[in-house]
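Q: Here's a chain of 274 amino acids. Please give me its 3D structure as tokens.
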Amino acid sequence: MIHSDYKKKIASSWFAYLQKQICQEFEFLEKGKKKFIRREWKKKNKVEGGGTSFILSNGNIFEKVGVNKSTVTGKFSKEFRNKILGANKNGKYWASGISVVAHMKNPNIPAIHFNSRFIVTTKEWFGGGIDVTPCQKDLKEENLVHEILKKICVQNKKDYQKYKNWCDEYFYLPHRKEARGIGGIFFDYETDNWIKNFKFVRDIGLGFIELSKKVIKRKSNLKWTQKEKEKQLIKRGRYVEFNLLYDRGTKFGLNSGGNIESILMSLPPEAKWK
């Protein structure tokens, strides 16, 4: 049986390594002409940890992309702890994870979101997912995304259809009665086998890099019109609505004393409403 402290160390180290790999791959896509800006932060009580944010803006590919990694500890408020698995008794937690949101300059290329996390209360579990938000329908692109994700799930003996359905249900705007994008996979409360679940989380992280590169390279040279850009900006408005009204990660960050700028990194640099 693996000791909890060792699991924490392995998970946190993996997320830090993955953050570095993602930044390197994305800078390569920018052909070295744009670099990420690094910023570190600490919780008010510094012994409770903090994180590192990498932001790249105004690139040829990425209008804005953030790659955040954090490892924090603390105690949830009495109001919030009942919403977190295993936290209802004393509210204490440890959490480490990585989150990536990429908003593209070219409206032909979809926004891409990825996160994975390991959380410890009186329980311990992995969660995360990948989802894609285009502003134009493209069945080939949609099939490509789901083929990559299904392959990872099958290789790890995970229920792809369950995770796909969960993603579709999660990334839905009830006030708009519409999906945020074309979905992907979403999983949470993976508690049964730490070693197998860690391998799955690791494969999802590497799969995100593969998926991002394939999706971006398909359309990076396509020209676009101002009308298509306007459509992208309106779609981004929906993205903002979801993240501020419904997103679990946003609520978790705000209720665990996280860094506001890092939590709201997911918001696009520009959006419109009609």
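Q: Can you summarize the key feature?
A: The chain has one domain: 4-266.
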